[in-house]
Amino acid sequence: MIQAITLLVIAALVAIDQIIKVAVVNRFAAGGSMDILFGLIRIRYVENTGAAFSSMQNQTVFLTIFTAVVIVMFIFLLMTKKIKPGFIYWCVAVIIAGGAGNFVDRIARGFVVDYIEPTFVNFAVFNFADCCVTVGAALLIVKTVYDLIKENKKYLSDDDKKAEDGGDEKNV
Q1: Is 114 a catalytic site residue?
Q2: What is the tally of structural domains in the chain?
Q3: Which of 130, 147, 165, 168 is catalytic?
Q4: Has residue 54 been placed in a domain?
Q5: What is the pTM of this model?
Q6: Is residue 129 part of a domain?
Q7: Is 170 inside a domain boundary?
Q8: Which of 22, 42, 48, 94 could form a disulfide with 112 if both were Cys (CB 3.0 to 4.6 A apart)?
Q9: Which residues form the domain of 91?
Q10: pLDDT in tens for each of the 172 residues of the chain?
Q11: Which DSSP string corresponds to 71-134?
């Protein structure tokens, strides 16, 4: 059941991404832009043949294959429950959705449609799928670091208890 819900969530996020991209292409492909959120964000059509931050330009074939491999690997991990349902599971699902959204672009268009341009900082133009990958990965990293700190505190706490008890169990 969780696998079906997961696939529906992934499909919904990919659909949202593609609907936004179609709207941006229809409205802005011929040029022009639109400022939103009090001018903090500009909607501007950009054809990205590379990866994040304009890296790997004109590497569409490599990026398409790489993305497909990562998506298949992550879906396998989720569907076989190698990653247990929970916070990390959903982080990976959101990452899959973002990767799949940009994968669809590379297959259908030969490039990724980017359209979100922050105006308050010099930053790359990106899209909803990029946000999914970034937010999913950031939350995954935060959760992993949190768990490591929590485990380290538990380990240190256990060592403190052993020290209070006289070091090791032979002294009891």
Answers
A1: yes
A2: 1
A3: 130
A4: yes
A5: 0.83
A6: yes
A7: no
A8: 48
A9: 2-165
A10: 888 999 999 999 999 999 999 999 999 988 889 999 999 999 999 999 888 766 788 888 999 999 999 999 999 999 998 988 899 999 999 999 999 999 999 999 999 999 999 999 998 999 999 999 999 999 999 999 999 998 888 776 666 666 666 655 555 4
A11: HHHHHHHHHTTSS-TTHHHHHHHHHHHHHHHHHHHHHHHSSEEEEEEESSS----B-HHHHHHH
